[in-house]
Amino acid sequence: MAVAATRTRETVSVVLPLEPESASRARRAVQACRESLDRASFLDLELLISELVAEALIARPRSPGATLGLQAELRDDRVNVEVVTDAEAYRLPPRLPEPGEPGWGLHLVRRLADRWGVRREVGMAGAWLEMRRAVERGECQVPRPKTPPA
Question: What is the pTM of this model?
Answer without folding.
Answer: 0.80
